[in-house]
Design a protein that fits this description.
The protein is α/β, with parallel strands linked by helices. The chain is 42% helix and 16% strand. It is built from 14 helices and 14 strands. α4 (109-120) crosses α5 (145-157), α7 packs across α12 and α10 crosses α13 (343-360).
Amino acid sequence: MQKVLHICIVSHNGYGAISGGTIGFIGGVERQTSLLARWLVGRGHKVSFLTWDEGGPTEEMIDGVRVIKICRKDAGLPGLRFFHPKWTGLNAALAKADADVYFQNCGECVTGQVALWCRARKKPFVFSIASDAECIIPHEGLFTRRERILCQIGIRNADRIVAQTERQRLLLRNHYGREATRIGMPCPEPADFFYTPRHGASFGRVVWVGRVWMEKRPEWFLEIAEACPEVQFDLIGPGFSTAEYGHCFSDGIFKRAEAVRNLKVHGALTRDQVISFYKMADLLCCTSKYEGFPNTFLEAWSLGVPVVSSFDPDGLIEEKRLGIFAADPCDLAVGIRKLFEDDVLYAEHSVNCRTYFEDCHRVDACLSDVLSILEQTASIERA
């Protein structure tokens, strides 16, 4: 008989994803953690899910998942709120969950905070890597020394670490001397979708999906659209500005995009709305400086949509012919034209995408491996 495990998943920005709404920030990490939470509950396990307080009761049940609110993201006094109520609120929520094992995805200051709390209370902690940058010292995606130090503390003190790619495993070993278990990223197929092979695209539609933020390099997408006036481009994703760090990057991107005639900006959309765009699109474009294993790739590949990208996880795009890998906007534009001008080549890449998705990223297979790690970690004896 299966032992019921109580797992606490820490996902500060995850309320929108777990509740099915559009409030707050919903990215790949949030979709992954909410998918894991629901899947674990569906297998008979108990799950607590810690998030920012974005309204409603301080604790609620959503699809069998116990959602515990930490505090409002903007609560407290500037300069002090990091410690109280954010850190104190997180500690209180971790204690309230009182789980068998704790899980957190994405290297940030929270990684260290959770690790320190778990270490002090002899609770097991599993950390999951979300991007290559987290495996490198210093983490270039974090803004302050405090964040970088806490992230390093978390990675050094996690009981087990899950990686998305072989590259992440090697980076982690080289920079931290830590080992990680590589597990494929799960991706659910769109509801009521029946796959049929795609044929030539004939200068159709290219979609870009993500946070409109610096490491995603959306300005490259604008350049590509300008270089391919015969193609329709769609930019989907929330703007990302933060007064705390004085960045208004996305505002400039949206302003510049207004002048690109063959490009439409759609802002933040629900997953179902994004899937509708994938179904209409012929290619997904990624312009990121670094990533982990993008959910957007899996969502596109599940529909047979090839990817034209500046990032190639473990060289899969080139090795398995799942699209085009290129290092700059000019060559990405060349890649788009190459696939659109050759119907046979496009159809081959499209079939490869679907085949690879079916072989490597089915939800049950991937999340069963995550559950095994959680069970093994929960059983660790502590002095």
